[in-house]
User: Fold these one by one.
Assistant:
Number 1:
Amino acid sequence: MNVSEIAKLANVSNATVSRYFNDGYVSKEKREAIRKVVEETGYRPLAQAQTLRTKKTKMIGVIVPKIASAAIGRVVEGILSVLNEKGYQMLLAVTQNNPQKELEYLDAFCGRQVDGVILSATTLTAEHKRRFKRVQTPFVIVGQQLKGNCCVFHDDYHATYDLTTYILKKGRKNLGYLCAPQKDPAVGERRRKGYLDAVRDMGCKHLAEHVVTASFDMESGYEKAKELFASYQDLDAVICATDAMAVGAMRYLKECGVRVPSQVLVAGHDDSDLARVTSPPLLTVHYSYEKSGELAVKMLMEMLEGQEAFVKEMMLGYSIVDAARRLWEDIL
């Protein structure tokens, strides 16, 4: 089968068939006629030929730090929901939290002529910023804010500020904080600053010392919670930069015979499935990760469709999820 044969069977011109396969305008009646012929014959246009004609590959490169992350998984789901609708395919690269790999994959994707790139960056080094200035392929950053570049990110600072204030207002007086590595500007630095500013503004400046840095996973949360409670006595709440850390901290406390949350309240960030299945459920922060993926693709599509050059920096909100309190109210 070829375009001419498809056109003859559908009783339309060759040009109409070409527009159909290249997302051009085709009337509803003719589009349906072509669709039926394509379905009956199983015809598929040669991808390489389409690329030569349209200069588009219909491929989007997506770079993520890891796949064993509920938050990243939700971002990717959001990306896919729009790409599938738009008829694009995704090439996924996993960097294993290696910033240098992010740059290598960015170069690789641009060299292979994907139409655009979505980068879920773990950090933004000086080399990242230099490389972004040279990239000709349209790209959008997810999860981090970088001035002068298209990005979709979350209000990590105010989320942690409000969570810390909320816990202090609940009557907890001796808080600790498990921080993510500060090389991550969003989860590490901004969430940490939110905690520090909140305890200062609430008149508890001494709590700023109660900070220990952990990695992003449960095992690190367990080990660093041990360090935190050994260093600072009589803590009655611990805030963690991620839900995974919080689950690790909760496991450590339960092994020590500490009642959660009556003796020590444990809170996290991300509103992951982990937060819902712990007993009791974690106090946590909900971020719209799926929405960030969707918005990143839509922003990229605007760039690909040749709209006027622009830079968009889009910050998404958050909400505090106190499932344990709701559960207790339901029991009462």
Number 2:
Amino acid sequence: MKDFDLGGRIASLRRAKGWTQEKLARALGVSNQAVSKWESNLCCPDVQLLPEITDLFGVTLDELFGRSAPEQGVPVESGLPWEDDGKLRAVLFAGRKCLRHQPVHETIRMEFRYTGPALDIESDFAVTVCEGSTVEGNVNAGDGVTCGEVRGSVTAGDGVRCGNVGGNVTAGDEVTCGDVGGSVMAGASASCQSAKGNILSSDWFPFDQRR
């Protein structure tokens, strides 16, 4: 295995816990000399000791041997599944696993809250951008969206309550907003001051539509 250094990994993990070689030796029931030889790569621990070593350091065998184990989700060590594009993203992690593309139990309600300037916002959860903050780009949320002015478009899995929106608004529930520069598609009622595009709603939509 290229650049394999089991001894160095053991030494690094031991120092991270603030342990001496003597303390590690006592915990494993071996001699100080044995630990010293491991860390010097003069020999390797007995295979029966490997589970104890990983338990002591709180790592997996793959991590101990410097391998990236295949995991469900997206391991942080392998890089995140998007470009460094300046977007604000709200994601869910379980340990080191990114669950962004996995379903979250319906009883769990999470919300992404933010104050300050933003280019784009992408969230699997509800999004609340505090009043007075302007989103220069788009907002894409798996749940509801509550915000001030959005220069781009808004897409939400639930309702949308915003100020002016420069682009389109697409919502799974009702839409309440100011002027809309594009079209509005709502799963329930749509209430807007004006819209330059079409209004599609499964309910009533009081608005002053000015072309």
